[in-house]
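Q: Given only this backbone (231 positions), what sequence would you predict?
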């Protein structure tokens, strides 16, 4: 795995942070893994196992894209857009309350609130935009973010869109993620990246040697000299 394009130098100062949500702000990754498995278990354990494995290896990819793959490649069954929408609604029904009520990643709210007056925040996630806005509203987080963005647009689209719209400097922008889609978007847009480590992504990032954190207290300690708060 390649290193991020921008090197974290001693003079680097972060002014902007892009947050993924599941696995970064909330401990909600397992809820979605279980939901995918539950949806495909009626097709047999082997299909459910394949779906679960694919999902865990492609965290952050839109559920709409995944449903198409799972039907057309795993089940050899064409699926219409209406069929995808129906599955997406079933998925949402299974996970919405679980995600809303999931534990926070340790220190997430502390960090978000502490630096909200000094840093600019956005959420970029694979969750549908309408759904993630409900989740952040219910968790009383919405007002801390300038924008909250999800599927159907992908993360590479959103990083470039936000950089252009808000005239952000890439060297001042940090992407916090736990999935390969987060890392790929950071590379694509030449941003700094910090990996939130967990058991599900350990094998995916075994060759990653960049900035890492388990919780936000560790992240704060690692980047405290790079925050505008300290200027």
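A: Predicted residues:
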């Amino acid at each position: 795995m390649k290193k991020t394009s921008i090197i974290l130098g001693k003079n680097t100062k972060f002014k902007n942070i892009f947050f993924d949500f599941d696995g970064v702000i909330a401990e909600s990754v397992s809820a979605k893994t279980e939901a995918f498995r539950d949806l495909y278990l009626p097709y047999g354990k082997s299909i459910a196992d394949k779906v679960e494995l694919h999902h865990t290896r492609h965290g952050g990819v839109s559920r709409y894209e995944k449903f198409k793959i799972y039907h057309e490649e795993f089940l050899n069954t064409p699926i219409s857009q209406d069929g995808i929408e129906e599955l997406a609604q079933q998925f949402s029904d299974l996970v919405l309350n679980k995600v809303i009520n999931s534990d926070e990643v340790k220190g997430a709210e502390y960090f978000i609130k502490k630096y909200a007056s000094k840093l600019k925040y956005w959420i970029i996630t694979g969750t549908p935009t309408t759904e993630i806005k409900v989740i952040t509203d219910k968790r009383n987080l919405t007002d801390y973010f300038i924008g909250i963005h999800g599927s159907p647009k992908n993360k590479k689209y959103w990083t470039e869109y936000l950089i252009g719209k808000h005239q952000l400097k890439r060297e001042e922008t940090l992407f916090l993620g736990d999935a390969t889609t987060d890392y790929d978007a950071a590379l694509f847009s030449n941003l700094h990246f910090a990996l939130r480590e967990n058991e599900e992504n350990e094998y995916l990032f075994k060759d990653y040697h960049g900035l890492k954190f388990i919780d936000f207290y560790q992240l704060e300690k690692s980047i405290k000299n790079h925050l505008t708060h300290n200027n």
